[in-house]
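In the previous chapter we treated chains in isolation. Here, by contrast, the input contains two separate entities that must be folded as one system, with a combined length of 396 residues.
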Amino acid sequence: DAEELTLLERWLGLPKGNKYGVQGERKVPVLQTNNGPGLTGLMTIAAHLVKQAKKDQLLGSTAEEKAVVQQWLEYRVTRVDGGSSKEDTRVILKDLNMHLEDKVYLAGNVFTLADILMYYGLHHIMVDLTVQEKEKYLNVSRWFNHIQHYPGVRQHLSNVVFIKNRLYTNVH
Amino acid sequence: MGFGDLKSPAGLRVLNDYLADKSYIEGYVPSQADIAVFEAIAAPPPAELFHALRWYNHIKSYEKQKASLPGVKKALAKYGPADVEDTTGAATDSKDDDDIDLFGSDDEEESEEAKKLREERLAQYESKKSKKPAVVAKSSILLDVKPWDDETDMAKLEECVRSIQADGLVWGSSKLVPVGYGIKKLQIQCVVEDDKVGTDMLEERITAFEDYVQSMDVAAFNKI
């Protein structure tokens, strides 16, 4: 989403001025560059912006971290953006819930681009979840609530509410 | 507030439940609150308390930066779910909103030493405060226990009532008061801790002695 890239730009503190377009039926974002055909693809552009802002640590510091960040960026583009049926959503939430059981951030203990883009990508899904679903995917809810409170990330997106007192405590 | 005894499995369970939907003890960034709780735990939580374990490993990764995390370390009793009974002995405050975002506006210019000294003094003050005996809310209740008829053995009835034991319940004096037709009701005093014992519980347990007790009423209820 071009809009998402604008949000990311703002969060990174980059000066405005990048021009975005979309390509094709699937609306793949394109970043117009001064010399050449432009950078294509959400992940690619996002990573480029991060490096422009000199915040490379957002892509992971160790080789392992970098790989995990890439894994979730790929997941975001192929699974979250690609699939949109109820069943797909369920699988995504289940995968994430399992992965986040023992982690605070997608890459473990550090906040990375994976968290930002997954947050933006999941927002429209989370907004529609029922209270019971939010509790079922408890780890995703916890992580989502955390990321949306991370300074500067949420911007104008709506705040998804997670109630503190669990109503369905026998679902673990 | 507080988690109970964090060195016990029960306390760790409270912590685990509390952290199920939170990344940190307070707010959305690691702070001295997390350090305070982290230091109260003896060892990494067991694998089945996976929320607590997740949090523990995460906070451990901040070990080197712990002095520079925002906020001020408070007594353990100040953190945690609002409805857990505080067993660390601190005076019970009015219920805090447990969603306070506690980024102290720490003065960046404050030197490391001054900060350490202040935190030390605060910790001392908190521990002194927590040594004060807890003020517990108590009430004195006068119960009327009525038998089925004048043939009921009142001594036995009284024995049954007094056999009811509970944490926070102390039986007092009693007397038999005639109500007419030869029937006497037992009027018995008790002192209860409001948090632990309620009149419903007492009524349930007293009327359970169906052979002797027809009904129970609260004749008088005074806060102490």
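Strands of chain A lie at 19-23, 28-32, 39-40. Chain A has a mean pLDDT of 88. Compare these points with the single-chain example from earlier in the chapter.
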